[in-house]
Amino acid sequence: MTSDIAMKTDNSIGTRGAKIVKASEFKATCLKLMDEVAEGGEEIVITKNGRPVSRLVPYREKPESLLGIDRGRVDIHGDDLAPVAADWDAESGNNWDDVL
């Protein structure tokens, strides 16, 4: 859903590329903007006199536990706990005086 509201993206006020809406425009189109954020997932920064005063972000349920939160998002290739075939300085017999 794309709106005809005068939104812009501006990094000059530290909004990290979020859409920016003036408070007066937000007041007039609040419900429409809430629907857009819920559907699209992008946050909107609301400004007053050119200064950010609030953020409208999509609601997300907090997980009961952080364990398994990334299940299905992370792929493991190979054995992460297997020894690495690399020479470490500690095993080479050199000390810091030799390196410097």
Name given to the CATH architecture of the domain at 8-56: 3-Layer(aba) Sandwich
pLDDT under 50 segments (min length 5)?
none
Strand content: 15-25%
Kindly provide the name of the CATH class of the domain at 8-56. Answer: Alpha Beta
Distance between the termini: 61 Å
Strand order of the largest sheet: 1-2-3-4
Helix count equals 3
Overall mean pLDDT stands at: 80
Helix content: 25-40%
Radius of gyration: 25 Å
Number of DSSP strands? 4
The name CATH uses for the topology of the domain at 8-56 is YefM-like fold
Note the overall shape.
elongated
Order of SSEs: EEHEEHH
Largest sheet: 4 strands, mixed
The assigned structural class equals alpha+beta
Task: Walk me through the structure.
It contains three helices and four strands. The protein is of the alpha+beta class and 100 residues long. The protein has a domain at 8-56: YefM-like fold, CATH 3.40.1620. The protein has a four-stranded mixed sheet with strand order 1-2-3-4, with helices on one face. The termini are far apart.
What attributes characterize this protein structure?
100 residues; alpha+beta; YefM-like fold; 3 helices; 26% helix; elongated
Question: What layout of secondary structure does this protein have?
Answer:
Blueprint: E1 8-9, E2 19-22, H1 23-40, E3 44-48, E4 51-56, H2 89-92, H3 96-99
Parallel strand pairs: 2-3
Antiparallel strand pairs: 1-2, 3-4
Summary of the model, kept short:
The protein has three helices and four strands; from the N terminus they run E-E-H-E-E-H-H.
